[in-house]
Amino acid sequence: MNKQHSAASVSVIVPAMNEAENLPHVFATLPEWIDEVILVDGNSTDDTVAVARKLRPDLRVVVQTRRGKGNALIEGFQAATGDIIVMIDADGSTDGREIRGFVDALLAGADFAKGSRYAPGGGSDDLSPWRSLGNKALTGLTNLLYGTRYTDLCYGYNAFWAHHLDALNLDCDGFEIETLMNVRAAKAGLLISEVPSHERSRIHGTSNLNAVRDGWRVLRTILRERTGREDVPAHTQVALAK
Ligand SMILES: Nc1nc2c(ncn2[C@@H]2O[C@H](COP(=O)(O)OP(=O)(O)OP(=O)(O)O)[C@@H](O)[C@H]2O)c(=O)[nH]1
Ligand SMILES: [Mg+2]
């Protein structure tokens, strides 16, 4: 895809906390047709912002006002000016070359393009058996409670039309953000398309995620959102993007 094929502009949101060593790898994978890249800095104590600005002079930097990946993404989404918003990680685990598949799914009619490591063609070099099991259990519970057919709940590679931000009405701070997005997208009746994605291992540094603490936050989100739930509209579905 290039700009001749679509009038839709694309913003990429990159939450980053101490990812200076990884950003050269991440930014090198971003397609040249991206319109806007926003780095949301989590008050990094390394050179994250300086490195990012040097790599991309056109970069927009947002300094988050609270703590956590969820807060970072929400503030990045609010700052975005593109028609399409894509979220990727700054640790080298998500490959910018896959953005095309997400954008194509949206241009083909999806409201929300949801990355999946378990869809045919997807995969992970990073998921431990323990975390994979936890993710599968949480995905199954979500499908049961919300009538969805998701294959991967807790994955940080997603894209959506910016005009759906109001419907998503995001309000959380932590790693439960992806779960909240997936649940709210279903509750809002958005047309959801899963896009196969291959997750690579973090290149440098250590994960900020704590499987028990954050798994618990995800579970609480799934259960809390169920209260007062309206039925998921019949047209909500998950179709694998070609
Ligand atoms: N701005 C900001 N970014 C964050 C924060 N926490 C995590 N991130 C970023 O969010 C992305 C994902 O965080 P990771 O720590 O890699 O967690 P994860 O990918 O869910 O877990 P792993 O699979 O173990 O790597 C990375 O780009 C982090 O730098 C935060 O509090 N603020
Ligand atoms: Mg990671």
Automatic annotation (TrEMBL):
Top-level class of the enzyme under EC nomenclature: transferase
UniProtKB keywords: Glycosyltransferase, Transferase
Signal peptide residues on this chain, from the entry's feature table: none
This protein's record includes keyword Flavoprotein: no
Family matches, as InterPro entries: Glyco_trans_2-like, Glycosyltransferase_2, Nucleotide-diphossugar_trans
Domain Glycosyltransferase 2-like: 11-129
GO MF terms, alphabetically ordered: undecaprenyl-phosphate mannosyltransferase activity
The enzyme's E.C. designation: 2.4.1.54
Gene3D superfamilies named among the record's database cross-references: Spore Coat Polysaccharide Biosynthesis Protein SpsA, Chain A
Family: Belongs to the glycosyltransferase 2 family.
Protein name (database record): Undecaprenyl-phosphate mannosyltransferase
Organism of origin: Nonomuraea coxensis DSM 45129
